[in-house]
Write the structure tokens for this entry.
Amino acid sequence: MDPTEKPPTVSVNKTQVVKAYLASHPKATPLKISAALGSQGIDVSPSYAAGIKSSLKAKKRKKKVASKASSPAAPAAAPSPADDTVSLDALRKAKTLIRELGGLEQARQALKTLTLLLD
């Protein structure tokens, strides 16, 4: 072999190696991951290992949130308004009606007329 020739290199998917290491050592810190893989001849920086570990945790959180959202939860009971209270939605609709009729007095007159028609 010529001294100027480089030995053949085997390409390694570093992401897969880090994921495999984390699968067997879930509590490993990025420094430990980097050191362990470095002893096997795979150069992985601690920040690279931390990024992969973080992305794996994010996927787990996403799955957990999705499973909670899809599971049937007990419906929250809506607070029943007292008989003399008016909802905010009803007040907004009344405000819109007053504006459309041209003012409060016109709205009152329209309501009086309506009550006469309904009786």
